Amino acid sequence: MLNMAGVGFRMWAKALAKGRSSGLSALLSGCRAASGVSKGSLPGPYPKTPEERAAAAKKYNLTVQDYEPYPDNGEGFGDYPKLPDRSQQERDPWYQWDHPDLRRNWAEPMHWDFDMFIRNRVDTSPSPVPWSTMCKHLFGFIGFMLFMFYVGAKFPCYQPVAPKQYPYNDLYLERGGDPEKQPEEIKHYEI
Amino acid sequence: MADFSISKHGAMGAHLVRRYITERDTEPDPAKKYEFDPNFGFGERKEREMIATQEQMNLAQLPLEQRDYCAHYLLKLMKCKRDYWPNFLACKHERHDWDYCEHQDYVMRMKEYERERRLQLRKKRIEEKAEAA
């Protein structure tokens, strides 16, 4: 595991201190940044014994009662905890979170779909009006509008005027009529 | 039978009420062709005169909707606008002439509709009389 920033610093420090070129050993040893994963903190296989469960709960910063792993049915979750499917938007906006945008504290166990439940994305907060009411209002309105469009098509509105009269046999030639054929004579009169 | 009572006050849209509710069989249908002979009821009927020729309208590239019986006024207006551009206020007289011609055309359309409607009512009266007899 190579951390380039740590390696670079260390090489510079050593070169300054000793005044001779650092060898391969310096590159390989390197120093470790605090952002790396610590030993034993990665997820592991599904816990089968109570001791394994307790160890997994401690690893994920959960109490043993709260710790509930995903069911072991071959989906590959291992011992990752099953947290409730609640989006970050539902959390208290006034509490002083460590990460205010994510509404999460340091070392808090992350949901499997945490990147989905951020505030910019999926939101599970309750709607202000019951879902059934919202559905009724929306589909009622859409249904009413469709019905009115249908009625409007069946009984169209129009002005009480006769069709407009055009000269030259209703513009026979202009509308692409055959110049060889003689069109029917259409006469218009004044009224 | 049309009832000449106070309840017959019609505003805009009265023709729609007649067409769809009260007099469904006599009110003219805009989709259907008018069925009465144009000369019926007239002694001598004057034909509408078309002044602009087809060639003139073609050269001016008028759209089809504007090639009506007022096209000669429109051609005059277009020439005036072309000659007096950029003074867009210059052709009021020509524009008014064209507008008035279009207005008269629209009034004629209204009269044609009304004529058709009255002939339909008359036809219905005659039929009812024949049935009653």
Automatic annotation (TrEMBL), chain A:
Belongs to the complex I NDUFB8 subunit family. One of its GO terms (cellular component) is mitochondrial inner membrane. Accessory subunit of the mitochondrial membrane respiratory chain NADH dehydrogenase (Complex I), that is believed not to be involved in catalysis. Complex I functions in the transfer of electrons from NADH to the respiratory chain. The immediate electron acceptor for the enzyme is believed to be ubiquinone. The keyword RNA-binding does not apply. One of its GO terms (biological process) is mitochondrial electron transport, NADH to ubiquinone. Keywords: Electron transport, Membrane, Mitochondrion, Mitochondrion inner membrane, Respiratory chain, Transit peptide, Transmembrane, Transmembrane helix, Transport. This is NADH dehydrogenase [ubiquinone] 1 beta subcomplex subunit 8, mitochondrial. The keyword ATP-binding does not apply. It is a single-pass membrane protein. Complex I is composed of 45 different subunits. Its main location: mitochondrion. It is found in: Mitochondrion inner membrane.
